[in-house]
Amino acid sequence: MGVPGQVLPPSSSLPPVRALTTAVVCEEEVVTALHNLRSLYCPLRLPQSVHKPRQPSFSVPAIDSGYASEDEDENPFDTLAADTAISNLRLDEFERTIATRWLTTLIACAESIEFETEDAREKALNYAAFILSSFSDSIEDPEEEALTRIFDFATNHGDVINVRLNDAPLSGTDHTDVGMQSWGASIVMSDMLCADPQRFGISTLNAGSTVVELGAGTGLVGLTLGKLLPTLGLRNSRIIATDYHSAVLSNLEVNIGNNFPSDPVPPVKAHLLDWSNPKIPDSIPVSVRILVAADVVYAKEHAVWLRDCAGRLLGPDGTFWLMVTVREHGKFQGIASTVEAAFVEKKPATHDGRELRILEKERVEKRRGIGRGDEVCYFLYRIGWTSM
Predict the structure, then answer these.
(1) For 111, 147, 176, 229, which has the most beta carbons within 10 A of its beta carbon?
(2) What is the tens place of the pLDDT at every residue in 103-112?
(3) Which UniProt keywords apply (predicted)?
């Protein structure tokens, strides 16, 4: 994380966002990152929570410039240069965007990260919200705090599907009302669905059919389908976009409202679904014809949970379309292979003796300007029931 007293750019010092969402980051890393962000963005302020009588669960650095310790022998010109560099870094919109997304993701996923005590978790959440509040203090228009991404996908029948997403904190003081980022695989999959809906079996759907998205995040794939199906004559169809984190679902609800502002009953509905829970809520239909998921596997158990959940939801003639991101370095190197391994192990079986299998695998190349630097390519899997 750098030498003591040194403030580092968020882009090079923060643990990966996905380390937060998959709970592979430790408390010490989180606290160190928060202290670095505090030193950069609000060096002369402390969150109110540290003034409570009880001892904070993690120490708060002494209040000084927040940049670098200054002693009597320090060259004043060196100090001026360092302060100028820090000021420039603080004004860097790219770095602030990274810090904002990291902090909001931390707040959304804090319950799944292991802290020594609940008090430590609470202090970390307060600290993150405090730093975020310092961003909004310097913004004249609160709505500028929200980071919005707009996607346009061309269809093979001449229409253009437009989707608008919040990928960062919403305006206001509730910094837990956030969403995850829209990852490369979800963008590529959405584009492929629009370019060739017949390939994905959408033409086999009937008006009023239901499609379920697993691990929806910001909801890009589900929202794309919600706008695509009516252009194919499939009106009154429903898309159920599921996820596990309540904060993600809250942001998903906002995205649904932004994309269907005049629809009293939007075609896309957000719903809580825990893959590891064998019971499917009654409000989620089973025996669906199409399941979709993009970039949702970040641990071996995820692939197994996902497989079993798909087996409980997918109808006898249904298809599960899963797009997995291949990463050849970093913490998630090799994770993509766990999908195929999960289907080699014991698989869900139907009452008539069939089992859920990978029926087809296609390598999809990474597209320029889409996805992260560690993404090599994507695998698109067609999964369905077949005789053993």
Answers:
(1) 229
(2) 888 888 777 7
(3) Methyltransferase, Transferase
